[in-house]
Design brief:
heterotrimer; A alpha/beta (370); B mainly alpha (360); C alpha/beta (508); A: 370 residues; alpha/beta; Rossmann fold; 2 domains; 6-stranded mixed beta sheet; 13 helices; elongated
């Protein structure tokens, strides 16, 4: 009897873990519900093209300027702006680590801010932290929500207490009047940019291994849809489409299984850098060449430093950015609001680049690598 | 088949149905037959040259041996913990991240892009073993002294482990460029079989020797079946439970080394994700009771390879991503039902009837 | 007594792999009688009961109730035809309330009127004089009360046939008396009761008829007046058995040298179990015992000696030298062996084989890194299976599938294998058959004659009087007296237990 129960339990656990997989939060990229109306950027390959906004986002010098401005403000008003920042766990991914570091660098005392941070991957804990911040009387509440729903009442409290809310990285299902602005990435646009690049390569035929992220996450949906739709329109052949759950070793196994089956392929579209890395490991052990002079084109996302270095070395072909540097945008918005100005666009979609192995420079690696 | 042979065969089958090898063997057979009918090329093994210029074996069976070995090593430790502590360690994946991260930290010396190894791999690995065994002992102490249920006790490390792993490397992603490091999760030059397979063989040989030349099996089983009685026979149940967790820690360190070697790097949040569930499943597929007591190491290891076999089959037939977990769940449910005592009793009595008929 | 047959079992056969447990057994039960089912362990009593209650399905044979044949495939089916059982081991759910336990599995639909259930339960408990509350959690009741709740549950199910399988083994005398009153009461209402017990006194006190079984076969059915005790025992054992009272004469007393120090000596020993500090000693070759009512602390004393409970005070000497015993392993290293009171909870390691159970203690003493070879283990197993005539299919059989008496013999063998200087046996004869009881008593005397010191505890006083040369008497966790020589008789012990004379100053 005991044994039977135990076995049932394991079945239950397996089911639970199986269900858990589908719903677990995405680990690498932020959510975006904005319509994919951003036109595919021709300049994707043209990485050298300076884009003012993106530059500001990442450039330390820009942050310094901001710091100077803020310092001037502080000198004038004599007091710090109190911000409460609610974010996901910085250990979640390289993206989140860079995101957190960027926020910490901008919202410091030298820049005229008195910032408190709260981290959680759970919505309820985040809501608790938000209430705490409201009670503490912060001026601004910056929020990257774990879940899209459940925020209405706490944001109403914020409004009642004169706390202004700015969303970053992820949007929520709440009345737009409850927040000042939302700064997000557009996953679909990131995907479209990468697919455009693939098209521009004019390969004779396209036999693609598509390695997906955790199913149902915003990054997976945006990046998968871009490829799936174009592949159907262009008649590209998807050799394999499978989720590796953002995981390098799973990606390695998936590519290995395609190699074992003997099917030919010439493009690997991996929805993040880790999975691309795993895929490449499988190619290496089978002696299949890849990269600029190789048989297989490698596409990754998230501009991890290691990924950009692989690009620079010609081992990979393309990497799409998912910009984690929202702090300068936020800083600008707070400055505008403090000086009595208004925000023209409620939803601000960050500018994101795509890097091509043939044009990437060491400077790009240093600037954009996270 | 000749008639006189038949009853002998059915006696054998009857015994097989009751044996603990029945489930894993049947599962293996079903998977093998299915693949053989669907596409015999599944079992094709070819010789290729990898990017390092070595001639190596390739093909699905090799891939199964390669990736299944990690799970098999974990199944060894999980079997012991299950037997002695009457519960499972769900922090295995997080602990693999810790061990892997620590090994990378030692090899890179804290510099994420170190060009050379800062320490011989064996030293880094041994230190990693110590760290993983310490974390295992931590789990063991919670279970043995504080009498917390294993699943609850290990929930702590399950939750915190990946953050600890990230903390070892200041949240950076070290990349080891030295080619010799990749031999562990890949191929050693001149040897055409994946290294993880050899590592698994070494682990199995070690645990076999340990079970033969110590009383680990008797003690772990006695503690798992009747702790009171074990204590009154002079055993220290707490020490034995902790020991089982420490041994699992050692297995975790080995798997951590293989995992980080495969891509010469790490992703803290997803490395070895959910591997604990597969390890527990391997133990269950091996016909071992998850409520502790008697165990069979060999069937647990078989269970691990069955899970990999299944995964590889599902990849092969391009099951859609959304449906992958569902397919796996269905297969798991079938296997688990097969292992239920009532079902086995049924098969066993069927076998007997066949035998009686033939005798008549 | 009417001759109106209530239950008839005819030609029942049951085979297990390797064992032919029932070989054409007949059994008759009349309405309004209490019928004892007797036999040694392994005689087939339990199997017969389990066939009757649907736990096992019979291979052959017929069962009829009130003349009409019935098919009993499950315990539920047995209940439906009016057969209720109270087993030796409590089979209720300890984490449910008393009332829930009494009504579990008996409600018609999904709904449950909790209030009514509790008040009904309360009524039954009161009418049977059971000291428990309906809403109390079962595990908070004593074992005896739990047993009575189990009986109350069966009684309330309007059963025609009530089976009591060793119901009295964990009850004290007043509780037994209450149970007997209840049994007679039910008998008056026309219920047929099958009573399985090892206590001969109880059989003769309450039963009308006796059916004796041996080795899976029926020996015969007797009216109680026609079967004197001695004959009953000889029928159970299958041999003429004259006087089991006089076994002590068969063995010589060990000749102690004058200057020999006591093998074990404790001063002011106390443990966290709550016993008051006590002094105790045992000489080489001596058999002594702790006696007292259930809960008087006799088991707690020996547990303190062995280090089974945490020792909180006192000093211990062995052969005149100071030793520290903090845990069982310390005691074992000093040559002490301890057979615990509760065989199932503290003794056997159920799923392990007879062989593994047998070598366990010796193996632990030998050390983690020095396992016995397979050949050694087999040799030990074969040797002791033969020596103690343990009935088992093989040394590989899991111990849990052996009968109680044979399990106990394996545990005795386990400790003999460690070659102890001092052997403690706490209730070694509880719940086992007469033959094995005598075997164990003989063994104790034999070991003592060879120089082993033995402390023997039994709730059957005559067993202790027969085997021990000195009795330590306990009451309310205190040592209240010590009896030797002339004082070693039933009435003296009783009066000491009851508190006639206090000898120990600490008891005040």
């Amino acid at each position: 009897m005991k044994k039977k129960l135990a076995l049932l339990l394991v079945a239950g656990m397996t089911m639970a873990s199986v269900i858990g997989c589908g719903s677990s939060a995405e680990t690498t990229a932020p959510a975006a519900d904005t319509a994919a109306d951003t036109a595919a950027d021709d300049a994707a390959a043209d990485t050298a093209a300076d884009d003012a906004a993106a530059d500001t986002a990442a450039d330390d010098a820009a942050a310094d300027t901001a710091a100077d401005d803020a310092a001037a403000d502080t000198a004038a008003s004599g007091e710090l702006i109190k911000v409460g920042i609610i974010n996901n766990d910085p250990n979640e991914s390289g993206y989140r680590t860079a995101n957190d570091a960027d926020l910490k660098a901008t919202f410091c005392e030298a820049n005229g801010y008195d910032a408190s941070f709260a981290y959680s991957l759970k919505n309820e804990e985040q809501i608790n932290s938000a209430q705490q911040f409201i009670q503490d009387g912060v001026d601004y509440l910056l929020l990257s929500a774990a879940d899209t729903s459940g925020w209405d009442s706490v944001l109403q409290d914020a409004q009642a207490n004169g706390v202004r809310v700015i969303l970053f990285d992820r949007t929520i299902d709440a009345d737009p009047s409850l927040y000042e602005a939302s700064i997000v990435s557009d996953m679909r646009a990131e995907g479209d940019k990468a697919v455009e690049w693939m098209k521009s390569q004019n390969l004779g035929e396209y036999n693609i291994i598509h390695i997906q992220g955790v199913m149902g996450s915003a990054a997976q949906i945006g990046r998968s849809d871009a490829l799936t739709e174009t592949a159907a329109a262009e008649g590209w052949n998807i050799v394999m489409e499978q989720t590796a759950n953002w995981n390098a070793e799973e990606a390695q196994q998936i590519v290995q299984s395609v190699i074992d089956s003997g099917e030919s392929f010439n493009v690997i579209y991996a929805e993040n850098d880790n999975m691309a890395q795993g895929a490449v490991a499988a190619l290496d052990s089978a002696g299949i060449t890849h990269g600029v002079n190789g048989d297989v084109k490698i596409i990754g996302f998230d501009t991890n430093k290691f990924a950009l270095e692989e690009l620079l070395a010609g081992n990979w072909n393309y990497d799409g950015q998912c910009n984690p540097f929202q702090s300068s945008y936020i800083d600008d918005i707070i400055k505008t609001l403090e000086s009595g100005g208004t925000i023209s666009e409620k939803t601000i979609i960050m500018d994101e680049k795509g890097f091509d192995a043939e044009t990437i420079t060491q400077e790009d690696v240093d600037t954009y690598g996270i | 088949m000749q008639n006189q042979n038949k009853s002998g065969v059915s006696v054998f089958l009857g015994r097989l149905v009751r044996s603990q090898y029945f489930i894993p063997l049947t599962a293996l057979l079903l998977l093998a037959v299915f693949n053989l009918i669907a596409d015999p090329a599944f079992f094709k093994i070819t010789v290729t040259t990898n990017s390092a210029g070595n001639r190596v074996l390739a093909g699905t069976p090799i891939t199964i041996l390669d990736y299944g070995s990690e799970l098999a090593i974990l199944a060894i430790g999980m079997t012991l913990v299950t037997a002695a502590a009457k519960g499972q360690d769900i922090s295995v994946g997080a602990a693999v991240a810790i061990a892997g991260s620590f090994i990378l930290r030692m090899l890179s010396g804290g510099n994420a892009n170190a060009a050379t190894l800062q320490m011989p791999i064996i030293c880094a690995f041994l230190l990693g073993c110590i760290v993983a065994m310490l974390f295992g002992a931590f789990n063991g102490v919670l279970v043995a002294f504080f009498k917390i249920q294993p699943m609850i006790a290990t929930l702590i490390l399950y939750t915190a482990g990946r953050s600890i792993a990230a903390w070892f490397n200041n949240n950076e992603l070290p990349i080891i460029k030295d080619a010799s490091f990749s031999y562990i999760g890949g191929f050693i030059p001149g040897i055409p079989i994946p290294t993880p397979f050899f590592i698994m063989v070494i682990c199995v040989v070690i645990i076999t020797l340990v079970l033969k030349f110590t009383n680990l099996r008797l003690y772990a089983q006695a503690v798992g079946i009747n702790e009171n009685s074990a204590r009154l026979n002079g055993l220290n149940p707490a020490a034995i439970k902790i020991l089982s967790f420490v041994i699992l820690g050692l297995c975790v360190a080995v798997v951590g080394l293989i995992k980080v070697s495969r891509v010469s790097s790490i992703n803290y949040s997803v490395i070895a994700k959910d591997i604990e569930m597969d390890a527990i499943l391997a133990v269950a597929l091996g016909g071992n009771s998850l409520s502790g007591g008697k165990f069979n190491m060999a069937t647990s290891i078989m269970g691990a390879y069955i899970i990999q076999f299944l995964t590889q089959t599902l990849y092969k037939y391009k099951v859609p991503s959304e449906a992958l977990p569902a397919y796996k769940a269905v297969v798991v449910i079938v296997l688990v039902i097969m292992s239920a005592p009532t079902v086995r009793e049924f098969f066993s009595s069927r076998m007997k009837k066949v035998k009686v008929k033939e005798v008549a | 007594m009417s001759d109106n047959i209530l239950l008839q079992m005819k030609n029942i056969h049951k085979r297990f792999p390797g064992v032919y447990a029932l070989q054409g057994v007949d059994f008759k039960l009349r309405a309004g009688e209490i019928h004892a089912l007797m036999g040694e362990n392994g005689a087939g009593k339990s199997t017969l009961i389990k066939v009757l209650t649907g736990v096992y399905t019979k291979d052959e044979g017929e069962i009829s109730i009130e003349g009409s044949p019935v098919a009993i495939h499950s315990p539920q089916a047995a209940q439906n035809v009016g057969i209720s059982t109270v087993y030796q081991e409590i089979t209720l759910c300890p984490n449910l309330s008393v009332a829930e336990n009494m009504f579990i599995g008996r409600t018609a639909g999904l709904g449950q009127n909790w209030k009514k259930m509790n008040s009904d339960a309360e009524k039954i408990l009161q009418s049977l004089d059971i000291p428990a509350k309906a809403t109390q959690q079962l595990s908070s009741c004593s074992i005896a009360v739990q047993q009575m709740v189990a009986i109350a549950r069966a009684v309330d199910m309007d059963c025609k046939v009530l089976i009591l399988d060793e119901p009295t083994s964990s009850l004290d005398e007043s509780e037994v008396a209450k149970l007997f009153k209840l049994m007679r009461d039910l008998k008056g209402r026309g219920v047929g009761i099958i009573f399985v017990t090892h206590f001969l006194d109880q059989v003769y006190e309450v039963c009308d008829r006796i059916t004796v079984m041996r080795d899976g076969q029926l020996v015969g059915e007797y009216v109680i007046e026609d079967l004197p005790r001695v004959q009953l025992v000889s029928k159970m054992l299958g041999k003429e058995f004259n006087d089991m009272d006089d076994i002590s004469g068969e063995y010589q007393t060990y000749e102690r040298k004058a200057d020999e120090k006591p093998v074990f000596e404790a001063k002011g020993l106390a443990s966290e179990s709550g016993i008051k500090p006590f002094d105790f000693h045992i000489d080489k070759g001596e058999v002594n015992g702790f006696t007292g009512l259930l809960g008087s602390g006799r088991s707690e004393c020996v547990r303190a000696i062995f280090g089974a409970d945490k020792v909180t005070g006192g000093s211990v000497k062995m052969n005149g030298k100071d030793v520290k015993i903090r845990k069982p392993l310390d005691a074992m290293r000093h040559g002490i062996a301890y057979l615990p009171e509760d065989r199932k909870v503290d003794g056997i390691v159920g799923d392990l084989s007879v062989r593994d159970n047998l070598i366990l203690a010796a193996q632990v003493l030998k050390g983690f890194l020095k396992p016995f070879s397979k050949a050694e283990a087999n040799k030990f197993a074969d040797e002791y299976i033969k020596l103690l005539s343990i009935k088992t299919a093989s040394a590989d059989t899991p111990i849990k599938s052996l009968s109680g008496g044979n399990q106990q013999k394996v545990i005795v063998a386990r400790w003999l294998l460690t070659h102890p200087e001092y052997l403690i046996l706490d209730e070694p004869t509880r719940g086992i058959d007469v033959g094995t009881k005598t075997d164990i008593q003989k063994l104790v005397l034999k070991l003592a004659s060879e120089g082993m010191s033995v402390t023997f505890i039994s709730s059957e006083l005559d067993e202790m009087l027969r085997t021990c040369s000195r009795l330590v008497v306990m009451r309310d966790l205190n040592v209240v007296g010590e009896l030797t020589g002339q004082d070693m008789n039933q009435s003296k012990v009783m009066s000491t237990i009851a508190g006639g004379e206090k000898q120990n100053a600490e008891s005040k």
